[in-house]
Amino acid sequence: MEPFKTFESKTVVLPVDNVDTDQIIPARFLTVTTRGGMGKNLFADWRLDPDFVLNQPTSAGALILVTGENFGCGSSREHAAWALVDYGFRAVVSTSIADIFKNNAVKNRLLPVEVDANTHRELVQSPGASVVIDLEKKTLSLPDGRAASFPFDGFAQHCLLNGIDQLDFLMQREDAIRAFEESSPAEPA
Amino acid sequence: MTELPSGKPLTLFEKLWERHLVAPATTDHPAVVYIDLHLIHEVTSPQAFDELRSRGLAVHRPDRTFATMDHSIPTLFDGDEPLFADEKTRNQVETLQRNCDEFGITLYPMGDARQGIVHVIGPELGLTRPGRSIVCGDSHTSTHGAFGAWAFGIGTTEVGHVLATQCLLQRQPKILEVRIDGALARGVTAKDLILAVIREIGVDGGLGHVIEYTGSCIASLSMEERMTICNMSIEAGARAGLMAPDETTFSYLEGREFSPKGKAWDEAVADWRTLPSDPGARYDKTVAIDASKVEPMVTYGTNPGMSMAIEASIPDDAEEQSLAYMKMERGDALLGKPVDVVFIGSCTNGRLEDLRMAANILKGRKVAEGVRVLVVPGSQEVKRLAIAEGLDRVFRDAGAEWREPGCSMCLAMNGDGVAEGQLVVSTSNRNFEGRQGKGSRTILASPLTAAAAAVSGTIVDARKLMDQD
User: Which of A182, B83, B136, B459 is most buried by a 10 A CB count?
Assistant: First the structure.
């Protein structure tokens, strides 16, 4: 896997709280058996509105989605992360991001970035602003030069920066897993 | 009482966590935790099997993996022939069959006596048991926590991790205690209680937490009621909900197909008795709810936290975009609103007790003209038991559609959809925009409230109908 690098992009701002994964990718698009090509159905129902932010020419090419709190709540469908990545996003920035979505995002090299309320307000008030996200330093740099730091799981950060696959990491624990299975009082299947 | 040498009292969750540690967390990596039971279905597994194939991997523990079909299967059949919504859903179901054949996984397909919604059949079969760690590529896996199991939803990449290694990388979550004392009033159900809890703590109140439900009210509930509550923990942002196993839990499980038998059963029960949180165990946060004050609840907005007592009016601070979608206004009452569709089913309220509640209202009454009512049992076993009691007759006689088991109209990916603009009273778990079909408007409620809406054609307080019986 390719190491994750610092990148700069303008933002798209979707200032809605509690955006659930049914909005990100409605269930009728889950009848697939592959993970590719989901970007065309990202926010499918909201995109029917010509005024929706992703329909604005200014949004084209943006890699960073700034959105309201509790982003990605609801269903565990990883299709939501696949759709955002396939569409072109590389980071979602919010004050809080739902647990399962956050997990799914990281596995797909989509950065879940949780910033403080002040930074968030500044981002929401300046849609299209150019922002730099540095995963190594865990900072998001605003146009005024201020760098806001964000929390990020140390292991996920290490995996992304070094191109390490989490399944490979688990597979390397095979001996420990076998030992656990043999010694554990855990009940049988 | 299980105590560490230090004597530190532990919560139920801490005990579950300790039991499943293959490797504790270090500064370099999260904990590696063991998964006792992996449940899979047709929608969130195909890409994980592809990943295994592309890496040349086997399923590490097919004996700990069970599959069923629930999300995209039709609930209508022509004889034995399932009437799929389209070729894509058929392909998804056939793909699961092929993957289970190839990797040696037990599958309960359509028509099998054990088939049903994954969160209904796990407990029914005795696969869900206290002390276990359980995952599934579905957020309502929190349901199984009602048994004192650590159960949570995962994405497809992690489905692949569990298939390949039976393990996951996990950070230890915090624990939120939701203490519920007091008794539910007549006509108030577990569904109303969990809607009240979500309104109280908010749809993000459980982020980063496991919820343990405690208190005298929880102890008094049946397993089916407990499952309804744990099921919707995710709607408060908590990946898992937990309840202490007790005599109610043990008597539910005794004799089920996969439950331990004989001496093994006695040993298992003795072990399960050590699981409940120790006196003095510390929670990160505690919220208290008085169950006796809870009223029948309905949602009015587009997330499960936007709810109110059925006789109340939409609050003045209700979020406007949601209300615009719902075609409702601040100050509106929901009582008296005409409904188009009623859905009784889902992993939240698709079990036998739920169907009994609905049938009690529908018995001797007719579905109101112009209202479409869909009753979908949560599993083949629920269907069998309901038929044995004559509940299917009650539903059919009233004019409701009695369907085959599955997720159906809860997420409407199998063709059981609500038309654009229609108002549906649903016993399911999510009232998100478009959840039950593009442009559908959902009111979440209990089976009693849903059945009352079916016969009245409007939203009514089911207690009024119960008084007439």
Answer: B136
